[in-house]
């Protein structure tokens, strides 16, 4: 029997849950996250998304057929047209100007995560790269679903973070997440146990870097 995407999350269950259910996520859902922590996260996430858009361009370069090329193009478009567009709107709403964004120093957590993924993708093949990208795409989709199911999550205008939750809960992002899981399921079905171990390590590392990214927001770390 072949592997599936869920075998990757099962292989690092504790890290995966620590990422999905992080204190930053809980506070965001409850609407109690300190505004400065969210602002710090938003600014660093702007830099993060620019590097992740580059990673999707790398995925286009590594593609072997038109389907993979289109998927990489769709990933790049989702980041540029959905996430970054809304993100710049959030920044405006939270008092962060375009010139603030242009002058931002990159935090260590942003540097570590984005360069790790670009390096893993440069050294490896398309599957390595898309596994390293998966905690980002699949994780945020799962986080939105998890938050929607929690009794402490405050929905509607009473929660200042409602637009953020709604973005990742929205059809565009959820469809992109499902398509990625389907592609990963098909590729993972063909790999050997030794290759799966390599990929599981990559997935776990990227998941741990996501945890550091949340913590960077909570700590306002540089
Ligand atoms: C750090 C991080 N990880 C994931 C996502 C969702 N693309 C994001 N915007 N930022």
TrEMBL record:
Known EC number: 3.5.99.2
Coiled-coil region: none
Keyword Hydrolase: yes
Gene Ontology MF terms: thiaminase activity
Gene3D superfamilies: Heme oxygenase-like (1.20.910.10)
Family annotation (CDD domains): TenA_C_ScTHI20-like (cd19367)
Reactions the enzyme catalyzes: thiamine + H2O = 5-(2-hydroxyethyl)-4-methylthiazole + 4-amino-5-hydroxymethyl-2-methylpyrimidine + H(+); 4-amino-5-aminomethyl-2-methylpyrimidine + H2O = 4-amino-5-hydroxymethyl-2-methylpyrimidine + NH4(+)
Pathway: Cofactor biosynthesis; thiamine diphosphate biosynthesis
InterPro entries named among the record's database cross-references: Haem_Oase-like_multi-hlx, Thiaminase-2/PQQC, Thiaminase_II, Thiamine_Salvage_TenA
Signal peptide: none
Record key words, sorted: Hydrolase, Thiamine biosynthesis
Gene Ontology BP, a term: thiamine biosynthetic process
Segments passing through the bilayer: none
Residues in Thiaminase-2/PQQC domain copies: 13-219
GO cellular component, one term: cytosol
EC top class, as a word: hydrolase
Pfam families: TENA_THI-4
Family designation: Belongs to the TenA family.
Role description: Catalyzes an amino-pyrimidine hydrolysis reaction at the C5' of the pyrimidine moiety of thiamine compounds, a reaction that is part of a thiamine salvage pathway.
NCBIfam families to which the protein is assigned, alphabetical: salvage_TenA (TIGR04306)
Official protein name in the record: Aminopyrimidine aminohydrolase
Organism of this sequence: Halomonas organivorans
Lineage, highest ranks first: Bacteria, Pseudomonadati, Pseudomonadota, Gammaproteobacteria, Oceanospirillales
């Amino acid at each position: 029997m072949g592997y599936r995407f869920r075998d990757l999350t099962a292989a690092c269950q504790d890290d995966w849950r620590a990422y999905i259910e992080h204190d930053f996520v809980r506070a965001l859902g409850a609407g109690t996250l300190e505004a400065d922590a969210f602002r710090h996260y938003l600014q660093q996430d702007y830099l993060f998304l620019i590097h992740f858009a580059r990673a999707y361009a790398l995925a286009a370069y590594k593609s072997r057929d038109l389907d993979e090329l289109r998927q990489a193009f769709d990933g790049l478009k989702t980041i540029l047209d959905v996430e970054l567009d809304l993100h710049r709107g959030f920044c405006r709403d939270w008092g962060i100007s375009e010139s603030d964004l242009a002058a931002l120093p990159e935090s260590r957590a942003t540097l570590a995560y984005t360069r790790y993924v670009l390096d893993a993708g440069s050294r490896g093949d398309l599957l390595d790269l898309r596994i390293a990208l998966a905690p980002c795409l699949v994780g945020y989709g799962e986080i939105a679903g998890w938050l929607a199911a929690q009794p402490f999550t405050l929905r509607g205008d009473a929660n200042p973070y409602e637009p953020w939750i709604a973005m990742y809960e929205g059809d565009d992002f959820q469809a992109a997440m499902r398509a990625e899981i389907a592609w990963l399921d098909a590729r993972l079905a063909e790999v050997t146990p030794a290759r799966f171990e390599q990929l599981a390590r990559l997935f776990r590392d990227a998941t741990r870097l996501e945890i550091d990214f949340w913590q960077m927001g909570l700590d306002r770390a540089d």
